Amino acid sequence: MKPDSALIHKTLKEFFGYDAFKADQEKIIHHLIEGGDAFVLMPTGGGKSLCYQLPALVMEGTAIIISPLIALMKNQVDLIRGFEAGASSVAHFLNSSLSRQQIDEVREDLLAGKTKLLYVAPESLTKEENVSLLREVKISFYAVDEAHCISEWGHDFRPEYRRIRSLVDQIGRAPIIALTATATPKVQSDILKNLGIPDAAVFKSSFNRPNLYYEIRDKVDPEKDLIKFIRQNAGKSGIIYCLSRKKVEEMAELLCINGIKALPYHAGLDAKTRAENQDKFLMEEVRVIVATIAFGMGIDKPDIRFVIHYDIPKSIESYYQETGRAGRDGQEGICIAYYSYKDIQKLEKFMQGKPVAEQEISRQLLSEVLAYAESSQCRRKLLLNYFGEDFQEDNCHCCDNCVHPRPTFDGREEMLLVIRLIEALPEHFKLDHLANILSGVSNSIIKSYKHDELPFFGAGKAHSEKFWCTVIHQGLIARLLSKEIESYGLIHVTDLGRSFAAEPWALPLVEDRVFAASGDDEEDDEEAAAAAVAMKAGGGGDPVLLSMLKDLRKDLGKRLKLQPWIIFGDPALEDMSILYPVTFEELKNCQGVGEGKARKFGGEFIKLIQKYVDENEIERPDDFVVKSAPNKSAAKVAIIQSIDRRMSLEDIAQARGMDMDELMGEIEAIVSSGTKLNLDYYIEENLDEEIVEDIYRYFKEEATSDDVQAAMEALGPDYYENEVRLVRLKFLCEIAS
Predict the structure, then answer these.
(1) For burial by CB atoms within 10 Å, which of 10, 126, 180, 354 has the most?
(2) pLDDT for position 15
(3) Cα 331 from Cα 632, distance rounded (Å)
(4) Contact present, 428 and 490 (Cβ < 8 Å)
């Protein structure tokens, strides 16, 4: 006998405590009870869980809830059990975290018919003993939560999810309901096809979350900006998302050092630690959790007030899903993402070597992220449009582009110039090379191709190379240009681009946001960083002190016969003019100043600042200093010890489970933190003496920064990147640290 409407409403009130259903909840529940398959697309906070929890409670048998995360299952089971006293048997989860005794208890309750909801991971469902157990149980229906995990086009692809239909057939067919908060039409089609429910009723709610504020910030000194934001929002709960486990750990430690209670959450932690950290966040013992995308799916915490993406996500689906965890109670939800074009290039680099089909999918998803990040349009309109929903209003009044619109200009002439240059070249080149040609910036690579003799060389010299990088980015976003990942980012003109060149149309480009491309001069990036820090610190640094510090640097450089940047870069001086450091410890908080550099060059700067502070009775902004952690993890210590034992870098990389690029990055981090390493034994064995001399001379006499890409361009194509990186490290350890 099927439950009637009265019983459904009674259960809603008595078990869940609600007087009425939201949106399509009631329709979905009746459809499922009637035996129909369903696909539910409902934004985070819209009440997806109720769509399978309530029918499971009123229907005969046990509902199988297929869920991707152990933490999510635990949260949901605790929630169900908490609705009613003595309801410990009504919901269980079955996964790898259970002991044999706990598994036996679950089995007993299932076979006794006490359990109405059984949460299982797709991996657990594939085990033969679990399939055999479930064949003995009456199944009311199957609910596939976070169903986007089924699709290779989705942002959390899980191969085990694609076996669900065959497992359902083994256990016994019953209605299937698939639920997700994010699915483009392509993903939706893939889900329905894979689950074998092409005729399922589709229930879609609006993707619009009017209480969420969306903002993209330039990734310039993000740690300092992030800490300042959290301090300004003290007492509020928030999530910070990072793409790597390593960054999660570093960020959580940095926040704690700066007086902000935070815990990490990622798949590399053991299950017990993950569960404890999640519970502490839910119980508000800590207000901030730093996590990879492993955290958050199904977490029922309604008062998360901010979601910050330290790294730009790999897809719009990820971004929407993760920002959706803010403001689930309909109140304030601030969603900030830090963006640098270099992060996009890093993600593109990871694609190289993967199967072509996978690359195509990843590139398409990433291009949408790039378009979103760099657009001057309403962010809400862009997001809703991505999911096939039309947002009618011109201004949402709740995103950075609507609240603070940036001026645009018609860039058709500039885009035409870019297209004509690319079409005129017999070969294809990278974005920054094209920008250098147009702005008239000559370097060894441009000279080697004789591109300084082209009529296009300097044709756009009224603008900087960064301006032209932005124009080319916009061309990629508008699909007038394309970039081949497998051919190292070489830029091509598309058919649409050729149509544009034949009959140009209006092309609005943003005036004031210029993102740095790979290969840009590091000092330019650092000046922008220092300027941003100065703005955040309350109207800029102290111009008089800054001028005095630059004079001191110039004088010290002459005395030591070193270029000024080797002593301290402009960002370090900018920070000094903001933070007024008067001890070595405080000096180390400035950008680019490690222990070694502070001790080696800092004495005179500290004396100058102390004298200036005393004479001008300046109140130093101690509360704005971001404290940093000593960067000597166990892995770094092992690397230092291995180099001290004169092990080959290849052997060190193999022993640490790294590739050479990762190891070089670790070594560079060690040196930048102020630790000196002696790599002469490796350099002498693997590099030609003349090459070492040439690169070393470049850094000592010609370089205006220690930027590797700038060095590569200046030195020319005869030098390999790893050679440059190794000699740069030798130079920094001997001279600049």
Answers:
(1) 180
(2) 79
(3) 42
(4) yes
Lookup: tokens for 447:
């000279």
Residue 473: the pLDDT is: 75
Write out the E strands in 104-259: 117-120, 139-144, 176-180, 201-204, 212-218, 237-241
Q: Is the pLDDT of residue 523 over 50?
A: no
Average pLDDT over residues 559-568: 80
Q: Looking at the predicted structure, is the pLDDT value of residue 527 above 60?
A: no
- 50 and 16 in contact (C-beta within 8 Å)? yes
Q: Does 18 lie in the same domain as 89?
A: yes
Nearest by Cα to 126 from 94, 79, 157? 94
Contact residues for 557 (Cβ-Cβ < 8 A; gap 6+): 563, 564, 566, 567
* Angstrom distance (rounded) from CA 87 to CA 101: 19
Q: Are residues 298 and 238 in the same domain?
A: yes
User: Does 174 map to a domain?
Assistant: yes
Burial code (b: 16+ CB inside 10 Å, e: under 16) for 416-444 equals bbbbebbeebeebbbbbbbbbbbbbbebe
pLDDT score of 515 more than 50: no
Contact indicator for 383, 207 with CB cutoff of 8 Å: yes
Task: Render pLDDT for 61-80 as a digit per residue (tens, 0 to 9).
Answer: 999 999 876 656 666 777 77
Q: Give the chain's length.
A: 737
Whole domain around residue 638: which residue ranges?
634-736
State the distance between the two ends of the chain, measured CA to CA, in whole angstroms.
79
Q: Determine the longest span between alpha carbons in the chain, in angstroms.
A: 94
Task: List, in sequence order, every residue forming a beta bridge with 673; answer none if it has no partner.
Answer: none
User: What is the C-alpha separation between 529 and 569, in angstroms, rounded?
Assistant: 12
136 in any annotated domain: yes
Q: Has residue 331 got a pLDDT over 50?
A: yes
What pLDDT does 525 receive?
A: 34
Please say whether the beta carbons of 369 and 320 come within 8 A. no
Based on its alpha-carbon atoms, the radius of gyration of the chain, rounded to whole angstroms, reads 29
The three-class DSSP label of residue 589 is coil
User: pTM, whole model, 2 decimals?
Assistant: 0.54
460, part of any domain: no
Query: CA 548 to CA 184: how far, in whole Å?
Result: 57
Instruction: Say whether pLDDT at 563 is over 80.
Output: no
Strand-pair partners of 582: none
Look at residue 673 in the predicted model and tell me its pLDDT. 66
Candidates 295, 234, 235, 400; CA nearest to 75 is 295
**CB-based contacts of 153, cutoff 8 Å, min separation 6:** 184, 186, 187, 190, 361, 365
Buried-state track 131-146, b at ≥16 Cβ within 10 A, e below 16 = eebbeebebbbbbbbb
Domain at 82, CATH number: 3.40.50.300
Q: How far is CA 440 from the centre of its chain?
A: 34
**Burial class of 128 by CB neighbour count within 10 A (0 to 12, 13 to 18, 19+):** exposed
- Tens digit of each residue's pLDDT (9 = 90 or more) over 292-322: 875 654 466 778 999 999 998 888 888 988 8
